[in-house]
């Protein structure tokens, strides 16, 4: 336990237990709410990436020109390409998902795919339920496992937090009940001691009360 001057300050564990046990604690409520929401979102993203992993096709994309698209206060490299798949050619603009704050950084990223060069590219099948357009990067197994396991772990931690709250609440209620019973026994003991120490009334006092 740390101290400030001569006054001891509660430890982190004590504060943590307090915020778990106290009724209506904003920290506890927000932690549980965000834990479940974020966990579900991450798991959903993982299954979406898994879906993409099993529904993509590989084409060839030739870069015709490069420019920048300003979106969400960021510069996003845009490659104007000609895609080829099964002898079908389509002109398309492929926009980078990652944005950059500085123009030099954006152009440096754009030069990874140079004009008049052809690169493999990926998109969803034509009959895919959730369609997605051409992109440079292959869907990632690492994202699949990372998102699904990460989301499940977050849900487990949130559930453990709820179980901890129930446990600490039960312990607190038992301690309060024991304290109340101890106080009652102490009061009864004090009353018995006061009664035993009080002398019986004198004969004259008794006669006065009877007159």
Automatic annotation (TrEMBL):
Swiss-Prot/TrEMBL keywords: Membrane, Transmembrane, Transmembrane helix
Source species, domain of life: Eukaryota
Regions that span the bilayer: 27-48, 144-164
Protein's recorded name: Uncharacterized protein
UniProt organism field: Adineta ricciae (Rotifer)
């Amino acid at each position: 336990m740390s101290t400030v001057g001569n006054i001891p300050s509660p430890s982190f564990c004590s504060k943590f237990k307090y915020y778990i046990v106290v009724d209506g604690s904003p920290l506890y409520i927000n932690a549980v709410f965000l834990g479940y929401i974020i966990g579900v979102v991450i798991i959903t993203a993982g299954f979406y990436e898994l879906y993409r992993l099993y529904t993509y096709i590989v084409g060839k994309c030739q870069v015709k020109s490069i420019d920048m698209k300003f979106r969400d206060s960021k510069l996003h490299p845009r490659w104007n390409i000609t895609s080829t798949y099964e002898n079908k050619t389509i002109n398309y603009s492929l926009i980078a998902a990652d944005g950059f704050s500085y123009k030099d950084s954006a152009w440096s990223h754009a030069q990874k795919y140079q004009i008049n060069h052809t690169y493999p590219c990926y998109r969803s099948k034509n009959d895919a339920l959730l369609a997605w357009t051409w992109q440079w990067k292959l869907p990632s197994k690492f994202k699949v496992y990372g998102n699904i396991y990460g989301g499940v772990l977050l849900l487990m931690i949130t559930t453990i937090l709820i179980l901890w709250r129930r446990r600490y609440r039960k312990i607190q209620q038992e301690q309060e009940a024991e304290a109340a019973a101890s106080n009652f026994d102490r009061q009864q003991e004090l009353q018995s001691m006061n009664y035993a120490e009080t002398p019986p009334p004198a004969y004259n006092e008794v006669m006065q009360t009877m007159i």
